[in-house]
Specification:
Structural class of chain A: mainly alpha
Helix content of chain A: 55-70%
Shape of chain A: elongated
Distance between the termini of chain B: 8 Å
Largest sheet of chain A: 2 strands, antiparallel
CATH topology of chain B: Alpha-D-Glucose-1,6-Bisphosphate, Chain A, domain 4
Order of helices and strands of chain A: HHHHEEH
Number of domains of chain A: 2
Mean pLDDT of chain A: 83
Shape of chain B: globular
Structural class of chain B: alpha+beta
Strand order of the largest sheet of chain B: 1-2-8-7-6-5-4-3
Number of domains of chain B: 1
Number of helices of chain A: 5
CATH superfamily of the largest domain in chain A: Winged helix-like DNA-binding domain superfamily/Winged helix DNA-binding domain
Oligomer: heterodimer
CATH class of the largest domain in chain A: Mainly Alpha
Low-confidence stretches of chain A: none
Distance between the termini of chain A: 62 Å
Radius of gyration of chain A: 21 Å
Radius of gyration of chain B: 16 Å
Number of strands of chain B: 8
Strand content of chain A: 5-15%
CATH architecture of the largest domain in chain A: Orthogonal Bundle
Strand order of the largest sheet of chain A: 1-2
Helix content of chain B: 10-25%
Number of strands of chain A: 2
Largest sheet of chain B: 8 strands, antiparallel
């Protein structure tokens, strides 16, 4: 099932997981120690984050390590950049309007 | 030669908060009017190629602005902006929700805090937007990425010559 990247980061526990994994690749057990929830709950969050391709699994011996998919995180930044452009455009239009009104008042 | 003041824009994803600050080359009376009068808002609020169309606006505490963003294809997206607090020429706060054309709001919304201050004839506007969900935050800009509607952001250099000479 293909999930939405923003759904992935909408949950506070998942954001905390991303923050932890951003520092270093971690196993599910090591991650679970940081949360009050059950190991199962953490696994579920990891599954969702993996389905969104925000995390990827890497096997080292018997252990599974989760690490961040940097490219996917960049999508969020691209989205923020679009939002910023909307405001830039909007404000440039306001500049135009303000100067038009000022000229009319003179 | 005019120069466009820089836009200070930052997003805190953890707290789902957006901070926007910009200075405008006009006194606070005029800037306040441009932000709080439907006729003026409609002239600048829609980022090109969108156009804002305000259907109802009562700028008073408890009042609302019910408006649409209209795409070049004529598609309308409706919003309700409830005015929750007003301190004239200093601050106003709103609670914004997406809505349908019959003014039925969606559940989750965002809280907006607009601050105004004047210095040396220029007015600084600072906005804080707190979103109840990240999914909603995403939708907030969705209109800019509608399929088949390539946003043409006007280049600053293109806009500058159209500004009045001061």
């Amino acid at each position: 099932m293909r999930r939405d990247i923003f759904q992935a980061i909408a949950d506070p526990t998942r954001r905390a997981i991303i923050t932890l994994i951003a520092l270093q690749a971690m196993t599910p057990n090591a991650l679970a120690e940081h949360f009050d929830t059950t190991r199962q709950a953490v696994s579920k969050h990891l599954r969702i984050l993996t389905e969104c391709q925000l995390l990827k699994q890497e096997y080292k011996g018997r252990e599974i390590y989760y690490q961040l998919e940097i490219d996917k995180m960049k999508e969020i930044d691209k989205w923020i950049e679009q939002f910023r452009k909307i405001w830039e455009t909007r404000f440039n239009q306001l500049d135009e309007l303000l100067s038009t009104i000022k000229k009319q008042k003179k | 030669m005019n120069s466009t003041p820089p836009l200070d824009f930052s997003v805190n994803k953890e707290t789902r908060t957006v901070y926007i600050t910009r200075e405008f080359n006009a006194d606070i009376e005029l800037v306040w009017e441009a932000w709080t009068t439907a006729e003026l808002l409609d002239q600048w609020w829609g980022p090109k190629p969108f156009v804002a169309k305000t259907k109802v606006m009562n700028f008073e505490v408890g009042g609302r602005r019910f408006f649409a963003m209209v795409s070049p294809e004529g598609e309308e997206r409706w919003f309700i902006q409830k005015f929750t607090s007003i301190s004239p020429k200093i601050n106003f706060k709103t609670y914004n929700t997406f809505a349908d054309k019959d003014e039925n709001p969606e559940l989750q919304g965002s809280e907006w805090d607009f601050n105004f201050s004047e210095q040396n004839g220029k007015t600084k506007v600072s906005i804080t937007v707190y979103n109840e969900s990240l999914a909603r935050m995403e939708r907030m800009i969705e209109m800019g990425t509608l399929k088949g509607c390539a946003m043409q952001f006007k280049n600053l250099d293109e806009l500058l010559p159209t500004l009045s000479q001061k």
